[in-house]
C-alpha cells in the first residue's frame, strides 16, 4: 500500500507505482484533508441504528437476557 499527502500546483498528478502494481487494478482516491477530517467527525458517533437484527440476536436472544428481563 502506498499512502502519501501532496499539495498539487496543477490539476495533474503523477504517481510512481511499485513494479508489482503494474498490470493490476489500483484504486486511487483523492480528497482534501479538510473534507476527510469533517467526515471522520461525523462517523465517530456510534451508529447503533445500523446494527442488524441478526447481530443483535447473538447478544439478546439468550437465556441470561431472558432472566434479566423477566421481572420487568
From TrEMBL:
Q: State the source organism's domain of life.
A: Bacteria
> Which protein is depicted?
DUF2281 domain-containing protein
- State the species of origin: Rhabdobacter roseus
Amino acid at each position: 500500500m502506498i499512502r502519501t499527502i501532496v499539495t498539487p500546483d496543477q490539476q495533474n498528478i503523477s504517481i510512481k507505482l511499485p513494479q508489482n502494481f503494474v498490470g493490476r487494478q489500483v484504486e486511487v482516491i483523492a480528497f482534501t484533508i479538510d473534507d476527510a477530517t469533517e467526515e471522520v467527525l461525523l462517523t465517530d458517533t456510534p451508529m447503533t441504528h445500523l446494527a442488524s437484527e441478526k447481530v443483535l440476536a447473538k447478544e439478546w436472544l439468550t437465556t441470561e437476557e431472558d432472566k434479566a428481563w423477566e421481572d420487568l
